[in-house]
Design brief:
The complex is a heterodimer. By secondary structure, chain A is mainly alpha-helical. Chain A has six helices and no strands. Chain A has one domain (about 30-205). Chain B has one domain (about 1-225). Chain B has eight helices and no strands. Chain B has helices at about 1-20, 25-40, 50-75, 80-90, 95-125, 130-155, 160-190, 200-225. Classes of the chains: A mainly alpha, B mainly alpha. The interface between A and B is medium-sized, with 30 and 30 residues.
């Protein structure tokens, strides 16, 4: 049943994106994606924060799996958004990186969450790993508004438009569907890995 | 009151241990000098354009030299299981963290106050003109660096690649405070006061310090005890 829901979500996302692309032939089509991608990444950051807080409150490892799954999905989305923005600005200015304030802020936030994954890989003990990465996720989330503000003061130029037309809103829905799909798949992997770990430990004990 | 006494005891203990061995502060100072010298090879030290970016360079030196001090903060407690002793002691995790952060803060600030005159001589900048403001920026930036760095130090103490992970964790989080410190210092070392346009960076640094100190005090128990 869960699998079927996932297939439906994925199919729906494809249909939505295809419909949007067919509807808006006039403007550069890449411009329809970077805002929904960034929006989905922001939603992923919120979810990661919630999952980390819930883990620290309950010590339920499912929340830890959710946190890592949604962080990885968010990193993929924000990377796609940054690359998309680079392509748009390259078409307009001929340079790949213009120190556009929004893209720079997105890049710093991407690095923040990349350190989260690095910390995870470095810590061996599973309980410690979950607790440490939950703490770091909270740290990273708190930094996002400050990063956005300082970069805006440092360099206020941004030529990327951020208006939400109808097609962009529908693309956001599609991207969120894809995000949920990625997160659920990754979360299952993480749960399976934890189960394997515990089985391995039992066999060692025997 | 007891809390502050505990903080004081931990700070004094850390400072005493460091001043007896001088393992972190010596390497940090030497490192700061080497980078200051290397920057003058990379950029023409006499040119006016170099003077404009000198404030930014200075904070790169401070951040790099600072992590050498921060790396030792918790790693120093590993031999003889001192860390377990500290955690088992009737001291709250917050007091332990704050004590260590204060000790690190004083050490990093000492390194900065030594390298600042050398920097002034090398690059011929009038850094003494706006010294009170410059000192305020130094204190705010260093406190941000030590709070985030001490937490990272506690997180990475049992990791194999500890020395590598600490700067990787600290610098991206430090970004708002570091950018603010660079922008403000760049003007201050050349003798210009902080104008209204840049005062936002100062407020941001104060906010950064308060937010991360508060969150670290709440979460440090989780990191140390689990």
């Amino acid at each position: 049943m869960r699998d079927r829901l996932l297939y439906i979500a994925g199919g729906l996302a494809i249909v939505l994106i295809a419909y949007n692309l067919a509807q808006t032939a006039a403007q550069p089509r890449e411009a329809l994606f970077y805002i929904p991608l960034a929006g989905t990444a922001a939603l992923a950051a919120f979810t990661a924060l919630a999952a980390s807080l819930l883990f620290l409150g309950s010590r339920n490892f499912q929340f830890d799996s959710l946190a890592v799954a949604v962080t990885e999905a968010g990193l993929a989305f924000s990377a796609a958004s940054i690359v998309n923005g680079c392509f748009l600005l390259h078409a307009a200015t001929g340079r790949w990186w213009n120190w556009d304030s929004r893209l720079t802020a997105a890049l710093v936030c991407w690095l923040l969450y990349a350190t989260y994954l690095m910390l995870r890989h470095a810590v061996q003990d599973p309980t410690e790993r979950a607790a440490f990465s939950a703490v770091w996720s909270i740290f990273a989330f708190l930094d996002i508004p400050m990063v956005a503000a300082t970069i805006k003061w440092w360099r206020s130029v941004s030529s990327l438009r951020t208006d939400w037309s109808g097609a962009r809103l529908w693309n956001l829905v599609a991207m969120i569907l894809v995000g949920i799909l990625l997160t659920v798949v990754r979360m299952r992997q993480e749960e399976a890995r934890r189960e394997l770990d515990s089985l391995r430990r039992i066999t060692h004990a025997i | 009151m007891r809390f502050f006494r505990q903080v004081w005891v931990v700070t004094v203990k850390d400072l005493r241990a460091e001043l007896r061995t001088k393992e972190a502060i010596n390497s940090s100072l030497a490192f700061a000098l080497v980078i200051l010298l290397m920057f003058s090879f990379a950029f023409d030290p006499g040119a006016d354009t170099t003077r404009d970016i000198a404030g930014g360079l200075l904070w790169i030196v401070f951040a790099f030299a600072g992590t050498l001090v921060l790396n030792r903060s918790f790693a120093r407690e590993l031999p003889n299981d001192c860390l377990d002793g500290l955690i088992a002691a009737p001291v709250s995790g917050a007091a332990l963290f704050l004590g260590k952060a204060f000790a690190n803060f004083l050490l990093v600030l000492a390194v900065q106050l030594v390298s600042l005159p050398i920097f002034g001589v090398f690059y011929n900048v009038p850094w003494t003109k706006q010294f009170p403001e410059l000192f305020l920026v130094l204190v705010l930036g260093t406190w941000g660096l030590t709070v985030v760095g001490t937490v990272s130090s506690a997180l990475t103490v049992n990791i194999r690649l500890r020395e590598l992970m600490l700067p990787m964790l600290t610098y991206p989080i430090m970004f708002p405070a570091l950018l603010g410190a660079m922008e403000l210092t760049a003007g201050l070392v050349t003798g210009q006061p902080i104008d209204a346009e840049k005062s936002g960076f100062l407020k941001m640094m104060v906010g950064f310090d308060i937010i991360y100190t508060a969150v670290s005090l709440v979460l440090v128990e989780t990191i140390l005890v689990g």
